[in-house]
Amino acid sequence: MPLEWSGLSPELLLTLDRGSGEGLRAQLERQIRDAIRAGRLQVGERLPSSRELACRMGLSRGLVQDCYAQLRSEGYLATRVGASTTVAARACPPVAPAPEAPPAPRLVADFRAGVPDLGSFPLADWLWALREAGRALPTAALDYGAARGAAELREVVAGYQRRVRAAAADAERTVICSGYAQGLDLALRALAARGIRTLAHEDPGAPAMTSAAAAQAGMAAVPVPVDEQGIDVRALAATGARAVLVTPAHQWPTGVVMAAERRRALIAWAQRRDAYVIEDDYDAEFRYDREPVGSLQGLAADRVLAVGTVSKSLAPALRLGWLLCPPQLVEPVVGFKELADRGSPTLDQLALARLIASGRYDRHLRRMRAVYAARRAALVEALAVHAPGVRLTGLAAGFHAVAHLGAGRDEEAVVAAARARQVGLYAMAANRAEPARADGPRLVLGFGNVGERAVTQGIAAVGDLLAG
Amino acid sequence: MPLEWSGLSPELLLTLDRGSGEGLRAQLERQIRDAIRAGRLQVGERLPSSRELACRMGLSRGLVQDCYAQLRSEGYLATRVGASTTVAARACPPVAPAPEAPPAPRLVADFRAGVPDLGSFPLADWLWALREAGRALPTAALDYGAARGAAELREVVAGYQRRVRAAAADAERTVICSGYAQGLDLALRALAARGIRTLAHEDPGAPAMTSAAAAQAGMAAVPVPVDEQGIDVRALAATGARAVLVTPAHQWPTGVVMAAERRRALIAWAQRRDAYVIEDDYDAEFRYDREPVGSLQGLAADRVLAVGTVSKSLAPALRLGWLLCPPQLVEPVVGFKELADRGSPTLDQLALARLIASGRYDRHLRRMRAVYAARRAALVEALAVHAPGVRLTGLAAGFHAVAHLGAGRDEEAVVAAARARQVGLYAMAANRAEPARADGPRLVLGFGNVGERAVTQGIAAVGDLLAG
């Protein structure tokens, strides 16, 4: 067996065999050449300095310099004066570019729902909050955090939910998660662990995502119709389900606010059936001209599992949310969070706590309420002018509304014709679990990420299509 | 039906009924008082300014000021000159403090494994990277990102893995996740979706966490013994499993580096059996005096699913990691990531990409290698002095080693006696799936988060216990 010697450069995996008979410089050259040919090193990637590589491999610096010089002369490497050595542009086999969809044509207005005004994200405030949280960070906070979330954020979120949503919230029953999708996933797993095997959900709603989430937790999903008061509780009771997912503050996608009587009936059903309500507190932050309505969770904290997120109030990219859990579900939810990802990122959590506690979060929401109210007014006015026959509903909260097309109209045909005029419209059909139930052709108009002028121009461009 | 009027304050849910007969000021006072009594508003929480509340509720400012003055005189509210109105300290019913475990006594040295040196986390670099990423952030990046992760980070991670781990990585097959726990969860779900129902894993290993993760994906977990060369591939084949989880770079917890021949046997098994290897590339960043060993994934990219994380190289609190997937598993893994949380936080991902691309990540790793090497040397030396008969193995990489106690010694008794001297030691027992297999009493000594002096003092304090 030959005597072996080898070393590891931090940026590049190389092995020298001092007993192989091949010279060390030849070995080094060959390995770097092979790494470049095989694509392990790609155009523009940095190599260690000759001093550093020599030190780590136990070679003389001159030997490494000679090796680099040789590879430069072969066109594999490039060195600019005073800069580091990198892989040269002409050295590499051409990498096939990833197949990409052709860029979508720029739209006059895109009424896609579910996206807040991204341009208004308070980036300076968020970076301030991250910096402040970082400055105050105890060393121990860099370890794995509690799966249930940072204590500071759980306190602040619970306080906020009590004040603003009349929720029965405390830090002990608040679990931090990574946005609504994970909140729903954790809630469903906790319910499935209690033997619940069927999830009822609103129709129209988000049938594809809801069914997929339910299936992942081992549950079947059953649609239940929504009318002008909210979910049909009698139809819900008839399904035999012991869990239901609802959006009481502003129903997705019809925009209905669940009526007080319907709320009471839903809670009574849950108590009678030993069932649970998952409350997606969707769009609760932005209300306009209706009476304030607290969260369902505040009415029956032992039956309602509320899921909230900053995706609409701040931005989806942050991936932060929370669950308010009935006492008996707290530990199961925390257990599933532990298995899922051992907790959400600590610095982000502490930054959100600072943002809320400092009042900057409230200030942002106040500003955004005015922004969305103006867009909503522009939408109402533009429709009154350009498509006066089209009824608009679901305007009490949030940033989407429903436009009712005349009987017999074809949603998809209107969407396609609008697209040809560079206006993004969206059919209700995608949100329906049972198309047969449809009560007339409708479009869902999101105005969260569309400026006032674009709202007006977009509706002006398609008014005749909507009016039919 | 009385005429109703109501309004919503952004920070507090209040409803006024103008037809109720009760005066508006009385209603406002009562509702705030009730909110404080019920704990919806807690000590120190801010109320809106009188001007703002008046504006939002459609009241005169004088009425709100009178209401606040009354509640101040009753002791519910407090206002400092020039500051906001808050809930007064004596107003609230005492909140029962959450039951907390008594603080653990401060240890001379805590040899808990699996934690890097938290005090060395490059916080300034991380905040720099967040700021830079934030500054360059396109507005569209605030929307939901791709579930597979930000393109910038996938490129940078793939490049890094090619260079440093000789991985067969490209951005297309790299999926960003929230640390190792989520990476394992996604990998197992993707394998379960291919009909694989049994996961073999190393013994000793992390049996509790591995079994729980497997169960969550609908898989059974089967332990397979580890010897001085790594996992016993013959025993693995005998289990009939078609998936195995291994830590080839530095086996947890024995510290064995998987031998080249064992690697080849493992890959051959996977190819023969149409099986998959999940490679936890644990501790690959920190190697000391052994030949560099590339990742298993680089040997058989279509059979190995590699999971990496920054929990050891930076800090667990960041919750960022990645999977390098065989081509046929990319889309299933991305689909499960989409369901799990719709992608990891974008700003954190872009910050990590900047940290690596700028060379600051490499610089940190180089610095930490020196730090850990010094602690490792201190451990070896302290044991040679204070417990010369105790054999130490598993020192080739990472920041934990295994101390072999004399035959017949009781691991738990040594741990308990050390704890009485304020030294945290950890028994191998917790890591064994089948205790009967144990080849002698051993302790796992982590030195990642223990300073050199504490290593020396800690071992000096328990040397006689170890020597027995």
Describe this structure in words.
2 copies of one chain form a homodimer. Helices cover 40% and strands 13% of the residues of chain A. Chain A has 468 residues and is α/β, with parallel strands linked by helices. In chain A, the strands form 4 sheets. In chain A, strands 4-11-10-9-8-5-6-7 form an 8-stranded mixed sheet, with helices on both faces. A 3-stranded antiparallel sheet of chain A has the order 12-13-15, covered by helices on one side. In chain A, strand 6 and strand 7 (230-231) form a beta hairpin. In chain A, helix 1 packs across helix 3 (61-73), helix 5 crosses helix 11 (346-357) and helix 6 (179-192) crosses helix 10. The longest helix of chain A has 27 residues, at 360-386. The radius of gyration of chain A is 29 Å and the shape is globular. The model of chain A is unreliable at 1-10 (pLDDT under 50).
